[in-house]
Amino acid sequence: MKINFIDLERQQARIGDVIRKNIENVLGHGKYIMGPEIVELEERLASYTDSGYAVAVSSGTDALLMALMACGVGPGDAVFTTPFSFIATAEVIALLGATPVFVDIDPVTFNLDPAKLKLAVAALKNVDPASYPLPEGVSGFKPRGIIAVDLFGQTADYDAIQQIARENDLFVIEDAAQSFGALYKGKKACSLGDISATSFFPAKPLGCYGDGGMVFTDDESVAQRLRSIRVHGKGSNKYDNIRVGINGRMDTMQAAVLLAKLEVFDDEIEQRQVVAGRYNDMLGACDFVRCPVVKEGRKSAWAQYSLLTDSRDEVLECLKNEGIPTAVYYPSPMHLQPGYAYLGHEKGDFPVAEDAAGKIFSIPMHPYLSGEEQEYITGHILNCGN
Ligand SMILES: *Cc1c(COP(=O)(O)O)cnc(C)c1O
Hints:
By secondary structure, the chain is an alpha/beta fold. Helices cover 39% and strands 13% of the residues. It is built from 11 helices and 12 strands.
């Protein structure tokens, strides 16, 4: 049986005609940059996520970067985040010359642990800046905000995180790159931060055919700043540059693809619940893998279905031999990545993240996975453990 990790071909078989028609429309009007599809997509997604404003951008990474830029983050600032995420989350903080301050994760959800966040925020106030790694020429730092990540499609605990933020005058950015379509206590993912950022990388729950992202906020002045940053810090026009910005635009072609995919997105999210439920049933009694847990009051977008096991090397090797694709998100926590060695961390600093990085693996997950295919996959997982 040939099994894909993510199956964009089956999605194309379903909506390929609409996608092609939408692309044809763009070829017809020729407005490849900031065409009408961009505005339509922004309006549709602002409404979908119950956000005041949506700004279409060039990628999920740029969405996070621009969110931090809109908050005025720079050298001397500290931003709290998880060590267990895709590298982009910490990268954007470092790129702006600010300092990423890692906080360990909850072992059940793999998201930022609010109890540890509270301690870390309090501790930073008492740290001697001289003992802390800072960019050249920077002599102090100021706790400015938090980037929480909704890992694998399940949102972080925003009630607790927002409370800590309010008590300490910090902003909250939601990294919703994996959670578009998820719910937290009835609220939509992408509406849970002061600013929220998502990605439309092809493998994400809502993916385009290239790079793309979106920034969401309820604050009109933030939305205005984001639109300016998106076009080189433009003022009244793009040759009037009132701040330092970037080229952060989404291509019209990608918006056209996303508008087509939006038609079936709600159904796909429901299908993902069915697929995850079947995996839970098939693997729930298995004693050498731990199934993912979605906390009360949350609905995951199921970007990934990730298992924990003490014998990962053996299981992955065995599944590979059966032609079943797997992936490891993430083999190394960010505080141990060589590019971030300047932060001075060592093994043992964030034990929960390190433990997860050593045990986690993800199995095929997409809305078009059949029960038969899942029997095949889980049957081999059970065999591999014996
Ligand atoms: C994918 C991802 C990003 C980056 O999105 P791109 O569109 O690939 O730039 C950021 N954060 C997380 C958690 C992601 O999964």
